[in-house]
Write a structure and sequence with these properties.
With 304 residues, this protein is an alpha+beta fold. The chain has 10 helices and 9 strands. The protein binds magnesium ion.
């Protein structure tokens, strides 16, 4: 399944900045990117190739195929992957989480509602993917976002996380957290309704809603999923900033409690600090996500 668009230079460079540069460039290509369900390759000639199960929807964001005969037939992509027109300017409730890849620290999930009239101001303030921002920038921007936009943040401390991860897998736990913070903001802004809800995608829509089965309330209306969601709406970027700011504050508390700096990630430096914590007589479960492979390595080293 593939679609080819022929675009002008301006649109080509707009596409190049929209998609993450995360694939090796084939010969003659100016950008190559893989997002959820689609790989996109843009060529100097102005031809842009969309491939994958969601290619037709993604290509439709940009224009009509060069040769409609070549487009896929009967794509089974869920409607939820197809964003409404002019999506980035709509009043959107967005959500994102941080901490899933880090051994130490909480799982923090945030949701932010960005009304139409706050889209441009937030962009001008520099609200973007929190991974591209320094800690001081994140703290400063988080304050601005909190003042301007309805929001909710949920920190699952390591202890709370460790308890729940015995019952749910990590993606399911994330789904529960997203649904929780989204609903909190959704009710907070009522009777105003968001024009759309965008979740920074970590599982497909079907799996997400399956994970939520049995919950007393599930936000479903106008919910969309996109990997790198911050590229589609500033609400997801704002949520990622609030999540990171809150996570930083919790990490500061944990660092004080531990009496040593807790590195992020799940590498060797992390193991070394974890060994020290255990040797100090502290409960690792108050600081770290115990189901990570780090725990086994740490305990093996402690016993030596
Ligand atoms: Mg995310």
């Amino acid at each position: 399944m593939s679609t080819v668009l022929t675009v002008n230079r301006q649109l080509l460079s707009q596409m190049q900045t929209t998609y993450p540069a995360n694939r090796k460039l084939p010969a003659g290509a100016v950008f190559a990117s893989k997002i959820d369900g689609v790989t996109i390759t843009g060529y100097k000639s102005g031809k842009v190739l969309f491939q994958g199960p969601l290619e037709a929807q993604e290509a439709a964001r940009w224009g009509k195929p060069t040769d409609s005969g070549k487009t896929s037939k009967g794509s089974t992509a869920p409607a939820a992957s197809d964003l409404p027109a002019n999506f980035s300017q709509l009043a959107v409730l967005g959500s994102d989480e941080v901490g899933t890849g880090s051994y130490f620290g909480p799982l923090t999930t945030a949701a932010v509602f960005v009304p139409r009239d706050q889209v441009a101001p937030l962009q001008e303030l520099g609200v973007k993917d929190s991974k591209q921002l320094t800690d001081p920038q994140i703290i400063r921007l988080a304050k601005q976002i909190q003042e301007r936009c309805p929001h909710a943040v949920l920190d699952l401390s390591p202890a709370a996380y460790n308890q729940r991860i015995q019952k749910y897998n990590q993606a399911q736990l994330k789904a529960l957290c997203h649904n929780y913070v989204l609903l909190r903001v959704y009710h907070q802004i009522a009777p105003t309704k968001p024009e759309a809800v965008l979740i920074d995608q970590f599982v497909g829509a079907k799996t997400y809603f399956r994970y939520l089965q049995g919950q007393p309330e599930i936000l479903r209306d106008g919910v969309y999923f996109k990997e790198k969601g911050e590229q589609y709406h500033v609400a997801v970027a704002a949520a990622s900033i609030l999540a990171r700011a809150s996570s930083l504050a919790v990490m500061d508390d944990l660092t004080a409690k531990a009496g040593m700096t807790l590195p992020i990630g799940a590498g060797v430096a992390v193991d070394q600090v974890a060994v020290k914590l255990v040797e100090k007589g502290l409960d690792l479960g108050d600081f770290a996500k115990l189901h990570f492979a780090n725990t086994k390595r740490v305990m093996a080293q402690v016993r030596k």
